[in-house]
Structure formats: C-alpha cells, structure tokens
Amino acid sequence: MFGRGRQDEEASVVRLLAAQLRRDIAFGILAPDTRLKIDDLRARYGGSAHSFREALTLLAGEGIVESHAQRGFRVASATGADLEDIQRMRARIETLGLEWSLAHADASWEAELVATRHTLGRAVEAVRHEPASEALAWDEAVSRFHATLVANCRSPRLIAFQERLALESRRFRLAALIEGCIDHDAEKATRAQIVEAVLARDTEAALACLTRLFQPAAGAGTESSQ
C-alpha cells in the first residue's frame, strides 16, 4: 500500500514538471533547439533528476522534445517547414476523423460539439481582451473543439495521433496569438459553418470547412492558429 502511494506521488510530480515544461516551451521561454540539461532544469524548477528524465521522456512522446542517446534532450525545432508539415498532417487526419465521426453521428456527439464551440466562443472573447492571461484557456478550448470533431470516429489510434499533432502545433498557435496574427472572426465563422454542416449531416461541406481552417491566413504570412 505504501509503495503504491509513493508511486502515485512520483507520477504526480512527473505530470507537474511536464506541464511546466510544456507551458514554457509553448510560450517560447524554452526556445526551439535549446538543450535541456537535467541539472539546469532542477535548479530552475526543482524536482529530482529521475522525475525530470521521466517528464522529458513523456514530452518526447508528444513530439515537442527530442531525445538523443548521446546528446540527451532538447526542445524540438519550430521552423516554418515544421509547421507546414504539422498542419498538412492535421488536415488529413482531422478530416478523416470527422468523416468517420459523421458516419456514426448521434445526438450525444452533436451536443458535445455544440457545447465545445460555445466554450471556445467565450474563450475567444476573453483572449481578445486579455491575451496574456487567457492564452492557455483559449488554447485548451481550441484543442478541445478539434478533439471533439474526431471523438466519434471509433478509432483510438486516430484520436491519439490527432492529440499528438495538436500538442506539436500548440507553440505555433500561441506564438500566432501573441503576435496578433489570428483572425478570430474568420475562424469563428468557419467553426460555425463546420457545426452547422455536421448538424445537417453535410459531410462534404463539413470537411471543406475544416480543411480551410488549416490553410494559411490570407495576407498574414503565417499558418492558421489551429
């Protein structure tokens, strides 16, 4: 019993450290390609060397940290090519997931999708006024909306892959938010069209609208925030 309690405590510490690192990577505090030395991280965040190795391994599984046998860990790169690749993969995976979700559509999934769009709408209004303090809540709402689109697809592997790609794109979303490169009104309108198409069981229209969310913003010189 005592052994299990200690394991749960260590797991909680690992999750906490991973969350702190994930946040600082997302906001660019830990810049792309930065070497993540265990001793430096312990001095900055606290925690044991073992806990940090576990946390970094967890983040490596999410694709935002890279692990090298001889060189340890570093923050994954974040180039324009990286973003383009992530967005291209997300467009394919999420449209496939949405297509499969629509094939099994039911009232429960529709209600969840409507609810997540409503939550995201409120998060957008909040982040317009307080970008710094509301950024993480907005980011979570964006992620939840996209996760819900594929949640009814009946493929755990597709859902897991979608989640990983969404995590990899997170720092690009937050950077775009901070730099003022997001057209919230355009994205809000497109998300509304997706939900309307889902409720109408118009698969072709729903997939076309979702694909549009992953296309470069016109004149912005950047990818969509998704």
Automatic annotation (TrEMBL):
UniProt cross-references to Pfam families, sorted A to Z: FCD, GntR
Protein name: Transcriptional regulator
PANTHER family: HTH-TYPE TRANSCRIPTIONAL REPRESSOR GLAR (PTHR43537:SF20), TRANSCRIPTIONAL REGULATOR, GNTR FAMILY (PTHR43537)
Naturally occurring in which organism (per UniProt): Saliniramus fredricksonii
Lineage of source species: Bacteria, Pseudomonadati, Pseudomonadota, Alphaproteobacteria, Hyphomicrobiales
Molecular-function GO terms, alphabetical: DNA binding; DNA-binding transcription factor activity
InterPro entries on file: GntR_C, TF_FadR/GntR_C, Tscrpt_reg_HTH_GntR, WH-like_DNA-bd_sf, WH_DNA-bd_sf
Keywords: DNA-binding, Transcription, Transcription regulation
Translocase as UniProt keyword: no
Coiled coil (UniProt feature): none
Domain of life assignment: Bacteria
Gene3D superfamilies with a match to the protein in the record: GntR ligand-binding domain-like, Winged helix-like DNA-binding domain superfamily/Winged helix DNA-binding domain
Domain HTH gntR-type: 11-78
